[in-house]
Amino acid sequence: NMRIGILTSGGDCPGLNAVIRGAVLNGIKSYGHEFVGFLDGWRGVVEGDVIELPRHAVRGISKQGGTILGTSRTNPYEGDRGGPENIKETLQRLGIDAVIAIGGEGTLAGAKRLTEAGLDIVGVPKTIDNDLDATDYTFGFDTANQIAVEAIDRLRTTGESHHRCMVAEVMGRHVGWLALHAGMAAGAHAILIPEQSVTMAQINTWVREAHDRGRAPLVVVAEGFVPEGAEAPHSERGLDTFGRPRLGGIGERLAPLIEDATGIETRATVLGHIQRGGVPSAFDRVLATRLGMAAVDSVQEAAWGTMVSLRGTNINRVPFQAALNNLKRVPQARYDEARILFG
Ligand code: F6P
């Protein structure tokens, strides 16, 4: 039997704890393995900061949001103790034979490099944005979508009372999966996503059409959307501490433009991190549990450099690279389908 280390890295996501529990239970029950958790993602790996994860440590955690291990955006190649040789030594000192890395693009890219340098790592894909390729859904997306829909339904009733246009900004820096699904579920009159360029004139037309039919227009916009011809919203805001462009609150920018052009009173709401918090949905708990269990099977079979993924209803295994080649964007056909419902 082996001693396996688990880490959660990058932005948190409902379902992370269910992955941890699935891995620990399958590992203990099927193979007699032992588990430890690295604290705060790669920071815990680099600094050798671990906690033991016996069976009782994961009792009842699949219904908890966040991650019991903590997370960070630390890069495993940073600092004096980073890099494959140092990490190998640290793992040896702690008696850890293999690592399960739960994370998004950045985490998996780091894991890939380390695996190529000889470390024994398998991955579990994670993001509420659902933008990782080579997996049909990522856990966390269903929960974030449900939270967004509940919030947007509430915006709807207040919007209707006041005959206002309501703009709901949802997460999605690079892709519009959340906006598309939450917008469709909530019956939005316009859905705006980074993949699709739409003019202000078109947006205003959809808003007017809904208003003319006596509805309170509802616009669902992904944070990464930029109206055609407009400056990127982050252009004047520079980079954040982690070198990523600071997004500029597209909802707040759209609202006055819509109001001025249509004469319809308009309010914007940014849902923000509410979408990443709290209890995971049943769908996400099941998906996350199965992925965690399958990751231990990957370790057992020494499938280093691979990530578990959902294809249809089956969990399978793909090389890290398969998830890193491209972002999984909303296909044109999915937007065209939703667009029929706008206005
Ligand atoms: O990738 C998940 C995500 O929630 C994005 O939708 C969002 O742009 C970003 O993370 C926010 O990151 P942070 O929590 O670091 O502000």
TrEMBL record:
Alphabetical list of PROSITE patterns matching this protein = PHOSPHOFRUCTOKINASE
Q: Which Gene3D superfamilies match?
A: 3.40.50.450, Phosphofructokinase domain
Protein's UniProt name? ATP-dependent 6-phosphofructokinase
Gene of this entry: pfkA
Q: Where does the record place the Phosphofructokinase domain?
A: 3-298
Biological pathway:
Carbohydrate degradation; glycolysis; D-glyceraldehyde 3-phosphate and glycerone phosphate from D-glucose: step 3/4
The residues responsible for catalysis, as annotated, are D129
Q: Which Pfam families match?
A: PFK
